[in-house]
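Researcher: I need the complex structure. Ligand is EPZ. Inputs:
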Amino acid sequence: MDRIAITGGAPLKGTIPIYGAKNSALKLQAAVLLSSEPLVLENMPDLADTRFMAQLLASLGVEVAWIKEARTLRLHAGDISSTIAPYDQVRKMRASFNVLGPLLARAGHATVSLPGGCAIGARPVDLHLKAFEAMGADIHIEQGYVKAAALRGLKGAEIEFPFVSVGATEHAMLAAVLAQGDTVLKNVAREPEIIDLAECLNAMGARIEGAGTGEIRIRGVTSLKGVKHRVVADRIEAGTYAMAAAAATGDVLLEGARAEHLGALIEVLRNAGVEVMSEANGLRVKRANGRLAPVDFGTEPFPGFPTDLQAQTMALLCLADGQSRIRETIFENRFMHAPELARLGAQIAVQGNEAVVTGVERLIGAPVMATDLRASVSLVIAGLAAEGETIVNRVYHLDRGFEGLEAKLAGCGARIERQRGD
Ligand code: EPZ
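Model: Output:
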């Protein structure tokens, strides 16, 4: 298994290009199933997860072509040859579950494995299934599989979600665009990835209004056409490198990052004493020497502070001059990085959904183990700031969501390398 070795203490200076958002790309990939014409996705992140999704689509009959040098993925679902997503594929990557809605909308039926829980929490899909039922689908769970059918087509419905879910909002949109009649989705997620998906679907001929607000209205259409779409910049990747620049003391331009997608993070960084400036082609993050101030924050759906940046921010605050409080309100088990950060000398007390981080003057490198995608990159950030060598094991988690991480950081002066394992 590959590991990443970091010798901390080098300041970061330079430019880091921000690629397309993984969490948008995966849903855009699923959207190809809605049309018999090609979908071309530009600014595609080349990641274990997006490759995996492409393989799943290929197993359903989609033609897949990566044009690597152009960072483009061309997908074409002329015919759908299978409507089954097996356990092994959905278990390895939860976003695979997102093929259910488009298959149901286009083919009238689908059999997709239930994703099950994962390291950060139970993560049920009840809201997704209730939305499809409201649209007239018959849903049965048999031997761990969701068997869904709407043989005479899905019907528009009014659906009010009991709480905000990114996945359920996107999945309901993916199904409703081809339903008969109007769908109103209330209490929906407002993440930039939702807007990106709506923009792509609308370019394909869908009629979606309100994406980015709490209510989305969709007028069903009978077919969608092929388009070329540019995946929105990854705000989580941008926020992660912002945190790395702050932790390692540096001056980094995050090329392509959009301030309007990172408001809550920028506020936390500024409160900690980090300079963040919008420039024409991205965001500049600058931190001088000297201790950071502690900050209290809690994770919330957009526009609140993203749970996907909580671990990275905790790594930074380990070095603040005082006590920070972090509340995780989205997932029930998303502090697994805390004991690993403690191996570097961090002082973190976790109680329930709150972590109290008492800043220390310095961290000292140590071997650590990645437990999930965002946790693993928080260990890289801590390693960049720590004295001596940090070895991050199990970096396959990292490869799911950060393309070219070592090269991007090394390009700014970090001493970081991948050590290839078996
Ligand atoms: C998406 O997950 C992202 N994944 C996550 O990123 C991200 O952390 C999360 O949104 C929140 O922003 C992808 O886009 C592939 P939710 P999702 O539905 O859609 C509960 C990463 O590191 N819930 O908004 O699964 C759920 O358990 C990943 O890139 C139900 O109870 O998140 C959670 O507590 C990790 N029933 C809360 O809602 C449901 O039917 C919010 O989850 C659906 C969700």
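Model: Summary of the prediction. The CA atoms of residues 338 and 348 lie 6 Å apart.
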